[in-house]
Every structure is written in C-alpha cells, then in structure tokens.
Design brief:
304 residues; alpha/beta; seven-stranded mixed beta sheet; 13 helices; elongated; disordered N terminus
Length: 304
C-alpha cells in the first residue's frame, strides 16, 4: 500500500478520478464535462469573469467555483486551461505556493507547449501531460459533442503515454503523439489552417455583401465545404480558380476591385495568390508560360 502522502504510481490510481479546472474559459469546462460522461467526477473549477461563471454553470452545474489552489487541493486530475502566455506563470505560482501534490495529474491544453512548461510542478511530484484538442470551441454544450472524433496533440513522459492516450479516448478523441520539440510547429500548422480560414471566410462574406449578395453564408457554404473536402483528400491537386489557371487578367481585375471597395483585403489577397501560384507551379498545375504574366500582375499590385 502506498504512503498517502507520497507519490502515487499512475498504475495504482483509481479508474475514476476527481477532476478540477483552472481557467473556466471555453475549453476547460467542455473537457471536464466530457470526462464526466466517461465517469470521472468534476469537483471544482476556477474562473472570475462573468462569462466563465456562466460557462461553468451550464457545463458543470453544481461544481463550485474556488481559487486555483483550492482546485488543486480537491482534484486528482487538474486541467490547466488558461491562455498560452499565462501558463508558465500559473504553473510556477502553483508550484511555489505548495499547491501541487505528489502523484497529481496536471494536464494543460496549450498547443504551443509540451510538458517542459510543467517542470516546476513535476519537481513537486506532479504527473505532467499536454493534451491539446485540435478543435475550435464555442463555450457551449455543442463543444462536448464536437470532441467525438477530435484529434488531440499528445505529449507526455514515456511512462505516462498510455495514461494520456487513455484520457483522450475517454473524451471521445483520437490521440496523436507530438514530440516536445515539434509542439510550436504543430500549433503553427493548426493556426495557419483554422484561424486564418476564419479570417478569409469573414472577408469573403463582407465582399459578397458589398457585391449585393443577400445570404453570403448560404452561397459560400456548399462551395467552401467542397473546397475543404477536396483539399483534405487531394492537397494541391484540388487547386482551381484564376491563379491556378494563370488568368492574369482576371486576377488584375480582382486586385482593382478590391482596392476600390476593400483596400484592407488587398495585401492578403496578393500574399495568398502568390503562395497559390508558387504551389500550382511546383505541382505542374500552372503552366510556366502563363505564370510570368500572372506574377507580373501580383508584383504590380504590391508596388501600388
């Protein structure tokens, strides 16, 4: 039998865990709610903003809101779901104040960091896990449903790898192992695809409204859905449109109209068009003889 005050081997840990959340933003309550569906027991959360209080009330009803140190005092598994830039200071503060208990599972959900950011807590005996859900969160109950089949970027010490993957599977996710040194690149890839996609779609809808389209979301939905599906299936082979075809005149007309109606979109259009042209050339989709005029139009657009 283990000393109750000494380190706990994760293999001897009870199958069901008490769960705490430090940072009741959009991610933490959803993950705790999904763990609850798997039989674990949320016992405490911390959050100070009105939005955090509302989210906790909806997703974790009857779970008390307490200070972070109290969350750690009550829970065997603690989710640290704070913004990336706040995570190192939070971990250091919790470790320095003695809030961390030996054998306690500390899980952060940052895409940027692996487990090294948890070293101050690990030195106090905590068991460090990095479990990043590759999903955008709304802060509502729909997030729990979206976790089904969601990939998680998993980083953990080798001896905790199975435990980390098991937690992800219990939340309905698919574990994907990411090496510690690859975490920033992994996160950059996700941001490039997901975050920039939102910006592009929002700009596209604004331009369609300016062009007189009454329901830009309805127009874009099928088009973007097909484009995303084709891109995921075929990569660069899915490229279509005037840049991939080398229609320099059409691209010049686009740039002229954007300058007139939405000048703030020109730089992004030119940058994406140039990148698209480069990839289309590299994959044999854009004929070299057409690329010269196209690249000339893009260079002229940059110089104005």
């Amino acid at each position: 039998m283990h000393d109750p005050h000494g380190p706990v081997d994760p293999r001897d840990r009870p199958a069901r865990l008490t769960v705490g959340v430090v940072g009741a933003g959009r991610v933490g309550p959803a993950l705790a709610a999904s763990l609850q569906l798997a039989g674990h027991r949320p016992v405490a959360a911390s959050g100070v903003s009105d939005a955090s209080v509302r989210r906790a009330a909806v997703l974790l009803p009857d779970v008390p809101l307490v200070p972070p140190a109290e969350v750690l005092a009550r829970a065997e598994l603690v989710l640290l779901t704070v913004p990336d830039d706040a995570l190192p200071g939070l971990v250091e503060g919790l470790a320095d104040t003695g809030a961390v208990r030996p054998g306690q599972l500390l899980v952060h959900t940052s895409g940027r960091y692996g487990t090294a950011v948890l070293d101050p807590a690990r030195r106090k005996g905590a068991l460090p896990l990095a479990l990043h859900p590759a999903m955008t969160f709304t802060g509502t109950s729909v997030d729990v449903q979206r976790l089904a089949g969601c990939s998680f970027g998993v980083t953990a010490p080798e001896e905790l790898r199975l435990a980390a993957e098991a937690l992800v599977i219990e939340m309905g996710g698919e574990p994907e192992w990411i090496e510690e040194e690859a975490r920033p690149l992994y996160h950059a890839a996700l941001a490039l695809g997901a975050n920039h996609l939102v910006t592009l779609v929002a700009q596209s809808m604004e331009l369609l409204r300016t062009a007189g389209v009454a329901a830009p979301d309805r127009m874009l939905g099928p088009l973007l859905g097909a484009a995303l599906d084709n891109a995921l299936r075929s990569g660069d082979a899915a490229l279509t449109g005037p840049v991939a075809r080398g229609d320099a005149g059409t691209v010049a007309a686009h740039v002229a109209e954007l300058r007139k109606h939405a000048p703030g979109t020109v730089a992004g259009y030119l940058a994406m068009a140039r990148t698209t042209a480069d990839r289309a050339l590299a994959h044999g989709l854009l004929k070299p003889e057409l690329a010269e005029d196209l690249l000339g139009v893009l260079a002229e657009g940059d110089s104005r």
